[in-house]
Amino acid sequence: MNARWWLTALLGLNAAWVTDLFVLGHELSAPAGPLTALGRLTGLYGALALVLQLVLISRLPWLESRLGLDRLTLWHRWTGFWVLWLVVAHVVFITLGYASQDGSPVLAEVGTLVFHTDDVLIATIAFVLLLAVAATSARVARRRLRYESWHLVHLLAYLAVVLGFLHQVTVGQDFTGSPIGRVYWWSLYGLALGLIAVSRIGLPLVRNLRHRLRVESVIRESPDVVSVVITGRALDALPARAGQFFLWRFLTPGHWHEAHPYSLSAMPDGRSLRITVKALGDGSAWLQTVPPGTRVLAEGPYGAFTARRRTRRRVLLIAGGVGVTPVRALLEEFAREHDDIALIYRANTAENAVLADELRRLASLCGARMFLVLGPSTAVGRFGPVLGARHLHAMVPDVRERDVYVCGPPGMTDAVRRTLAELGVPAGQCHTERFAFAA
Asked: Between the CA of residue 189 and those of 38, 182, 221, what are the distances in Å?
């Protein structure tokens, strides 16, 4: 059973347990109206969804290496919407239910609940914090905020989790009336927060203390692209694979607090790690002048865009833009295994084709077929759109018999996936990495 089915099965099982605990607590408590009961149930489901969010973003190595951090992050985002709507429903139904029982106006009942009911005030604070996190996570707001500002606000979600749990401990029927419920919820929250503590704090700390990474050299690949070579101790013990990326912090004045996700642009060899970065703005342009000897903190490796996902000996690699960096590393790994490889590299101009010379050299060494496809996104070739079904089939006629790895901008990645589906390539043979996340 794969990781996705494990997650689904565990979620279904926990949802059944939560429902059972609700029914037991509802029977043991004083009679409540249907609105109050519905409010309690949506609150419990909201708490369960919040725990799932924590697990999805815990970066647990076993889970992340099989699903990929980009997919887990997407699921985390959608789970966040469920958390928000379930908590909103909890607030609305509980307020309406108690107002109906007390025969009081809704606004008056809000004041009574918030200021005169045990620990509802801290639950209200948790609710406001969740709203703030949700508002700043909306796409429009996210584009206007610096990553560091967004991340700082996002950390408030952990405070909301703690405050919400304290509210649940005090007034939740699962806690006040059920020893089994107390054990269940303490264990569930403890496990989720423990995973975060180990995977997000403990493991990176141990690895950085052990490997002591430093910048060895900065190599200019083009006027706006550099490769940064990073060395350290015992790198052969670092479980990094071609196609993966790290969250990098370069400890220089003014930038030590910034985390940048960059893919490895060469297969790890146990002696050094290499990333290749294009100056896309202030966040990456300064790396062109980072001095050798600079200490580096790295969190990872992350990503499921690796040879582990391969199902066939024949491979097609498709790269677009700077998304070529993990593809270049994968080509090196597949070349050493003497696989049947085809490579398509999509770039606007020859000058934008980063690492093209390295790709040609590797392709020549292993006998891979390489196609450099140049032109704007609207370019049309002899067989139609340059990454359309006819054109792709003309370049790689046996594409249905290959595992296909695609990495590039989201628009290109989605277009290629549609093309592969049109050509009849099974979904299990299509492996993608959304470089917008790793860039």
From this structure: 23, 11, 48
If asked whether residues 130 and 50 sit together in one domain, one would say: yes
Residue 281 confidence (pLDDT): 57
| Strand 369-374, strand 340-347: pairing | parallel
Final residue in a domain of this structure, among 271, 302, 333: 302
Quickly tell me which residue has 């620990």 as its tokens: 119
Average pLDDT score over residue span 4-15 = 90
Same domain, 140 and 106: yes
- Asked if residue 129 and residue 85 are part of one domain, the reply reads yes
Please, which residues have CB within 8 angstroms of residue 22's CB and are 6 or more apart in sequence? 40, 41, 44, 173, 174
What is the DSSP secondary-structure string of 352-403?
Answer: G-TTHHHHHHHHHHHT-EEEEEES-TT-EETTEETTSHHHHHHH-TTGGGSE
Q: Residues of the chain with pLDDT > 70: what percent?
A: 93
**Which phi and psi (to 5°) does residue 60 adopt?**
-60, 120
Q: Which residues pair with residue 213 across a beta bridge?
A: 296
Confidence at 32, pLDDT banded by 50, 70, 90: low
Both 298 and 311 in one domain: the answer is: no
Do 49 and 189 sit in the same domain of this protein?
yes
- Beta strand pairing call for 403-408 and 384-385: unpaired
The Cα angle at residue 363 between residues 302 and 385, in degrees rounded to 5: 80
Positive or negative, the CA dihedral 311, 315, 320, 321 is positive
Of 206, 234, 249, the domain-final residue: 206
Answer whether 371's CB lies under 8 Å from 343's CB. Answer: yes
Q: How many domains is the chain partitioned into structurally?
A: 3
Q: Tell me: do 253 and 320 sit in the same domain.
A: no
User: Do residues 345 and 412 both lie within one domain?
Assistant: yes
**CATH, residue 226:** 2.40.30.10
My answer on whether 93 and 192 are in the same domain is yes
| Residues 176-229: tens digit of each pLDDT | 677 888 889 999 999 999 999 999 999 999 999 999 999 999 998 888 889 999
Could you write out the DSSP letters of every residue in 183-246?
A: HHHHHHHHHHHHHHIIIIIIHHHHHHHHH-EEEEEEEEEETTEEEEEEE-SSGGGS---TT-EE
Q: Which domain holds residue 37?
A: 3-206
Cα–Cα distance between 1 and 340 in angstroms, integer? Answer: 29
- As a whole number of angstroms, the distance between CA 409 and CA 387 comes to 14
Residue 378 in this model has a pLDDT that exceeds 80: no
Cα torsion 380, 426, 323, 148: sign? positive
| Burial letters 322-340, b for 16+ CB under 10 A, else e | bbbbbbbbbbbbbbeeebb
| CATH label of the domain that carries residue 385 | 3.40.50.80
